[in-house]
């Protein structure tokens, strides 16, 4: 979610499977960007959010493998296979289904190529302007196409965010889940060490279907 790293879920699933432990993966960023086969990945539970596909906010789904049962999150009615009571948000569900329907394989590949192009254009622009930076992770290898995390050497993330915001540019110092938090990125701390300057000098950028090459410039 933060640096766009595509983790080896299948390999982890193969390790977990013999233990009979339940294996859950958060696929909020990958669903719609990469092909997902839950059988091949050997996951028991997989969660997805609609807004990452440009669908309605505050809606998602949880894949649950047959045989996996757990207590109800909200007790009362028998909705959601008795796992979450309450009337379903039908309009949002319909919107989610429509968003998924607008992403056949050829469109996903078109988006992937578009985002990769944006990434390269962005990085090339930083180089051309003499910006001292490094990518957290990699540009393409095992990376999601729509996310890039960059270490801007010597510049505090909060100062950069303020200036970007004044210029109408949206970015983040961490994942969307930690937006507004003043705590250092635990992801970058785990990757590079708590004392690494990357932790407090990095920004996360993401690209969407409405972005254009002019936006990147």
TrEMBL record:
Its cofactor is pyridoxal 5'-phosphate. SUPFAM superfamilies: PLP-dependent transferases. It comes from the Bacteria. Residues 1-217 form the Aminotransferase class V domain. It catalyses: (sulfur carrier)-H + L-cysteine = (sulfur carrier)-SH + L-alanine. It holds the Pfam family Aminotran_5. The keyword Signal does not apply. The keyword RNA-binding does not apply. Keywords: Aminotransferase, Transferase. One of its GO terms (molecular function) is transaminase activity. PANTHER family: CYSTEINE DESULFURASE, CYSTEINE DESULFURYLASE FAMILY MEMBER. Belongs to the class-V pyridoxal-phosphate-dependent aminotransferase family. NifS/IscS subfamily. This is Aminotransferase class V-fold PLP-dependent enzyme. It comes from Ligilactobacillus salivarius.
